[in-house]
Amino acid sequence: MQVKKLPVEQAVGHILLHNHLGSDGRRILRKGHRLPDEALSALQAVGTTHVYTAILEPDDVAENEAAGRIGQLLTSTELRASTASTGRVNLIANISGVLKINIDTLHAFNENFGITLAVVPNNTVVTPKTMVGTIKIIPYAVPQRQLQAVEQLIRTNSNLIAINPFVMRRAVLIVTGSAAGQTKVRQSFTPALRERLTTYGVTITAGPSVPEDETSISRALQTVLDSGADMVLIAGETSITDVDDITPRAIRAVGGHLVHYGMPVEPGNLMLLARHGNIPIVGLPGCARSKKFNVVDMVLPRLAAGEQLTRRELVAMGHGGLLK
Prior knowledge:
Blueprint: E1 2-7, H1 8-11, E2 15-16, E3 20-21, E4 27-29, H2 40-45, E5 50-55, E6 60-62, H3 63-74, E7 79-81, E8 88-93, E9 97-101, H4 103-110, E10 115-119, E11 125-126, E12 131-137, E13 141-143, H5 144-156, E14 161-165, E15 170-176, H6 182-199, E16 203-210, H7 214-226, E17 231-236, H8 246-253, E18 257-261, E19 272-276, E20 279-283, H9 295-304, H10 311-315
Parallel strand pairs: 15-16, 15-17, 17-20
Antiparallel strand pairs: 1-5, 2-5, 3-4, 6-13, 7-8, 8-12, 9-11, 9-14, 10-12, 18-19, 19-20
Helix pairs in contact: 3-5, 7-8
């Protein structure tokens, strides 16, 4: 694409680079549109003799066609693309789940001058009709070879943008504490947890209430695991304070293994994630009682979407982990 200043008579049929105003200050011609013959008199009436235009080369692809082609490549059962307008195509979620962005591929995509993709942050919880990204072609056209390079990047990296659907259906809450405190613990944790989990399509079920001792907790865990729960949540009168505390010991006693304890997230440092086979076991920190965004909002949706979170992924949450 070439940018040229042309006499208005020679600019007919070419794309205007700027808006043009009439004598009353109102716009008479919009940028991005081809100058029509009938507009010459209006420009001459306000004394305009030259205009800046974009002149497309034979191998250029116009902005809407280019954005539309990229949008179609990024569509799937999970995502749809809007109709291209002014070089822009929006990407809209079709399903509920966790948005997954290949950040390295996104950076490579945006290295291409004039072709951009902006997305909401990786691991954002989305629902149908949520706009998750927008493609924008900056100039009025891009060279065919450059567009083809971007298309090849998308084909080679099919995981540039995707949505992991929620797959879990039932979580069970085990409560630990003194006989006097168990009811209070359950009542304080359940409302916020239910609100969150409902968003992920997960039903929370009341599990056993047991004393804070290793044998009682391990028995409760085994009962819940045998019941077919997709996820086990443990809330205590006292939060877990060490990897060898009572609850981690009970998890090991039933054959579970600790993924990580001690999150680099505030609020939420005292969260524990363990696993028994494919079933996640979450030792909840006190902040899980709150409906304000905290560590459980960073972890539970990804578990509900079937992610097998690793210690490395949990440790990485320290970047952006200061939530207050």
